[in-house]
């Protein structure tokens, strides 16, 4: 929100001065031009009146986009020159601008005194503008009721004077204050009215601010994609004007955190702080950015950084006399300390006092503080206090944006837990997760849907704990499924034809191919790599803007709610093992033979360490001469079986087995476990996902597509031989394997085999790729398919590697295919030897062409390989996913 000088002629100034006065509104229409012209005025030996205007313009520019020390110098000179010119109206206007600068510099008392003097000196229209600036400063200080009173007094006067620019500013400010008080509908009405006024002006900076404000309103109403889109649009507008965007940075951090992108929010806040420090900018904005960084660090699981940033922010807010903000910083500080394991009676009292103060401020964060006080009290077994605080926090479950209602349902669940009501816990968890499900249907991007599940992790864990204690294995299975891999239940929403996105993907592919070629030649080109990163950011940004277009089909699982009875019926003679994790320990749920049984597993952390040892061993075994590592890898496989299956390994029966591991164990090579080596094994992110895959019908026509990309050591030697097993498959050789052609042929195919170099991007999993002739085929490309192949075989390294995000979600190539119509995938979770892959793939297709499922064909293919370490490791590295 930005604030210029007057836009109309000040009383007592002659018409000849109009051209100088035009510089004031120009600051927010063309900031650079206004600065240059103001400096030009000072070079002409101007009158005190003209010099006052010029210094005020320079002061505004420096205040909002430059050095606060210079801003204060220019504005004080403008004030003194206005007094010399004997213009009370001019002096009042400058005092209003100076008051804002002093508040932003942290000199709150002096700033408020400047406003009082300005109100005394001004009259009518000018006085209304001074009151507006005071209202803005009161909003900055967190005095929302006083700000609302001042801005309400200004609007009728500005309207009567037909001052379009200042009326629009006042409406925007009033809307922003309404948002701070949680009155979203009132805010949206004022934003709409302000935007209509802005369209009649040339105030480009104010127009950008209006777009930014609409983004904030969209976020407050729960529409994250719209908020991201509007904030990005505002940033583009600001960039054209060449002005920094610190307020936008703060707001985008808030949206990113709500979207589950806390590490990105932390990086953005830190970068903005660096820029602000570099120009000597507003200390108020620095404090707000530090608070945003503290919140982001806490959500990103870095309480140490959160404590450090929140403590500095709290001190700055205190020095700036900003009690509202200081209270919010204190809340984050306590939350971060609790996250480090601290809990004490003093912290309970601090959190309760904070909650009372936030409630008095009418701050939307008050329920969060009551919930915090209740949590700490529960940890100390102060049941009476905990019940009182949680009951207050639970009031927010009935209204407000989704994440606020989630806070209320979490409080309700904890309150029920404290009072011993297992049924109450489960009902609160169900209602809270329903709220989050509804929220996630508004998110079109699969990445956002996956990351948003983190908000429901506590409710899902609480329900599982109660199910373990009071229910039975079947109830525990139902609640394990309730929040497992739910982002895969429906495909991502695709824009019908987004030219900008398609253009960005094409440009990215060209640049990425050139950058990779340069790296392979040993001559990396930094400019190409920078451009690749820029295009990646642009593509990702456009995909995050996509809004979900329809609610979940039938229910929030993309169909019917999970039915354990239906699962047992569909398993037949087979078995499904779902691994749930409670309090860091694996719980093995063995489904089959008409019942669900529970067995105790080991510690998840130990299993993760063992899985990493296995991965390291498989990487070594992918190279000839590493045979000595084979016994070590096999021993690790035995240890993994003990940790992950325990006694359940003895009760698996002879039929096919479906493994449903938690996201953090997605890289386990299941065929390495002794009890599973000779079995038909497939893996699914969830039991619900397996049921969906099993119900998926193959497409008519039975088209097979074989793709051979560049860069493989064997040049995809299996492809010509595999082609001979099928009637008339579509074969795309290296130079014909362009991304657009590959996607065209893959769409709706019955079987696809892609032999191409695979790259997993842990830093940005949606850019994991397969190398084609014209560059990388990325996850975003697969998501453009109307229907992905019914079965797909990815015969290169790391194609089954996935990133664990959210509560229990996975992002990567395999999970991009499953919601789009693919019922079965074969892929590798580790580096593999290209030459050893060829006989495995040939044996695999022999089984597929004979009518076997992917799991059956992969089992037989492993058995057909030579009995040496290299080929054994290659067979273990590949996994069958799904149910085809």
From TrEMBL:
<feature type="domain" description="CHAT">
    <location>
        <begin position="635"/>
        <end position="882"/>
    </location>
</feature>
<dbReference type="InterPro" id="IPR024983">
    <property type="entry name" value="CHAT_dom"/>
</dbReference>
<dbReference type="InterPro" id="IPR011990">
    <property type="entry name" value="TPR-like_helical_dom_sf"/>
</dbReference>
<dbReference type="InterPro" id="IPR019734">
    <property type="entry name" value="TPR_rpt"/>
</dbReference>
<dbReference type="Pfam" id="PF12770">
    <property type="entry name" value="CHAT"/>
</dbReference>
<protein>
    <submittedName>
        <fullName>Tetratricopeptide (TPR) repeat protein</fullName>
    </submittedName>
</protein>
């Amino acid at each position: 929100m930005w604030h210029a000088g007057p836009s109309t002629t000040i009383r007592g100034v002659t018409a000849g001065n109009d051209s100088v006065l035009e510089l004031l509104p120009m600051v927010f229409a063309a900031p650079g031009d206004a600065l240059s012209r103001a400096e030009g005025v000072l070079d002409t030996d101007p009158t005190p009146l003209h010099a006052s205007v010029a210094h005020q313009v320079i002061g505004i520019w420096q205040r909002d986009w430059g050095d606060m020390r210079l801003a204060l110098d220019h504005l004080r000179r403008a004030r003194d020159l206005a007094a010399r010119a004997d213009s009370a109206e001019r002096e009042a206007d400058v005092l209003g601008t100076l008051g804002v600068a002093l508040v932003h510099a942290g000199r709150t008392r002096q700033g408020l005194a400047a406003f009082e003097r300005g109100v005394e000196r001004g009259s009518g229209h000018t006085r209304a503008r001074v009151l507006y600036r005071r209202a803005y400063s009161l909003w900055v200080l967190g005095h929302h009721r006083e700000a609302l009173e001042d801005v309400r007094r200004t609007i009728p006067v500005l309207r009567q004077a037909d001052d379009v620019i200042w009326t629009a500013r006042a409406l925007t400010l009033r809307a922003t204050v309404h948002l701070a008080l949680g009155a979203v509908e009132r805010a949206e009405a004022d934003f709409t009215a302000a935007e209509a006024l802005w369209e009649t002006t040339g105030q480009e900076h104010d127009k950008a601010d209006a777009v930014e404000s609409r983004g904030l309103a969209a976020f407050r109403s729960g529409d994250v994609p719209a908020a991201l889109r509007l904030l990005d649009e505002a940033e583009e507008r600001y960039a054209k004007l060449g002005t920094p965007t610190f307020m936008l940075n703060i707001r985008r951090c808030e949206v990113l955190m709500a979207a589950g992108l806390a590490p990105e929010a932390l990086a953005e806040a830190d970068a903005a702080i660096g820029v602000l420090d570099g120009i000597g900018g507003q200390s108020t904005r620095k404090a707000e950015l530090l608070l945003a960084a503290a919140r982001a660090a806490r959500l990103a699981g870095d309480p140490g950084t959160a404590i450090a940033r929140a403590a500095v922010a709290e001190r700055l807010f205190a020095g700036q006399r900003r009690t509202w903000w200081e209270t919010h910083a204190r809340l984050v500080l306590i939350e971060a300390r609790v996250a480090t394991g601290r809990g004490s009676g003093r912290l309970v009292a601090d959190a309760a006092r904070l909650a009372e103060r936030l409630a008095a401020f009418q701050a939307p964060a008050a329920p969060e503080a009551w919930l915090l006080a209740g949590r700490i009290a529960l940890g100390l077994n102060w049941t009476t206090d905990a019940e009182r605080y949680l009951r207050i926090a639970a009031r927010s479950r009935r209204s407000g944006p989704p994440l606020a209602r989630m806070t209320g349902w979490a409080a309700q669940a904890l309150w029920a837990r404290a009072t011993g009501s297992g049924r109450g816990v489960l009902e609160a968890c169900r209602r809270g997760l329903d709220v989050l499900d509804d929220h996630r249907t508004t998110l079109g991007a699969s990445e956002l849907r996956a990351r948003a599940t983190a908000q429901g992790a506590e409710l899902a864990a609480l329900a599982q704990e109660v199910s373990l204690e009071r229910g039975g294995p079947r109830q525990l299975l139902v609640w394990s499924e309730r929040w497992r891999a739910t982002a895969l239940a429906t495909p991502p929403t695709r824009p019908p034809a987004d030219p900008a996105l398609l253009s960005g993907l094409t440009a990215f592919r060209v640049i990425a191919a050139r950058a990779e070629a340069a790296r392979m030649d040993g001559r990396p080109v930094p400019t190409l790599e920078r451009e690749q990163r820029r295009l990646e950011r642009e593509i990702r940004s456009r995909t995050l803007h996509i809004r979900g277009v329809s609610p979940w089909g039938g229910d929030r699982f993309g169909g019917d709610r999970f039915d354990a009875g239906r699962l047992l019926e569909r398993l037949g003679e087979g078995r499904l093992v779902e691994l749930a994790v409670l309090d860091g320990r694996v719980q093995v749920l063995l489904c089959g033979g008409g019942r669900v049984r529970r067995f105790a597993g080991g510690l998840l952390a130990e299993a993760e360490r063992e899985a990493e040892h296995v991965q390291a061993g498989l990487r070594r075994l992918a190279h000839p001469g590493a045979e000595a590592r084979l016994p070590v890898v096999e021993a690790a496989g035995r240890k993994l079986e003990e940790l992950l299956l325990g006694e359940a390994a003895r009760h698996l029966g002879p039929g096919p087995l479906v493994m449903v591991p938690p996201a953090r164990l997605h890289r386990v090579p299941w065929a390495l476990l002794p009890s599973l080596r000779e079995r038909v094994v497939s893996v699914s992110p969830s039991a619900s996902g397996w049921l969906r895959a099993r119900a998926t019908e193959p497409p008519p026509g039975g088209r097979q597509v074989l793709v051979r990309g560049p860069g493989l050591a064997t040049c995809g030697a299996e492809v010509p031989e595999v082609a001979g097993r099928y009637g008339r498959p579509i074969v795309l050789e290296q130079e014909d394997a362009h991304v657009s052609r590959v996607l065209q042929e893959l769409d709706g195919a019955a079987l696809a085999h892609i032999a191409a170099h695979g790259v997993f991007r842990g830093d940005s999993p949606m850019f994991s790729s397969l190398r084609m002739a014209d560059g990388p085929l990325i996850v975003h490309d697969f998501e453009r398919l109307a229907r992905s192949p019914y079965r797909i075989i990815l015969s290169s390294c790391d194609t089954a590697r996935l990133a664990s995000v959210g509560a229990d979600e996975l992002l990567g190539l395999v999970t991009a295919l499953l919601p789009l119509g693919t019922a079965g995938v074969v892929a590798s979770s580790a580096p593999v030897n290209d030459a050893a892959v060829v006989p495995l793939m040939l044996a695999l297709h022999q089984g597929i062409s004979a009518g076997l499922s992917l799991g059956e064909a992969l089992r037989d293919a492993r058995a057909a390989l030579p009995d040496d370490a290299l080929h054994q490791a290659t067979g273990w590295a590949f996994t069958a996913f799904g149910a085809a």
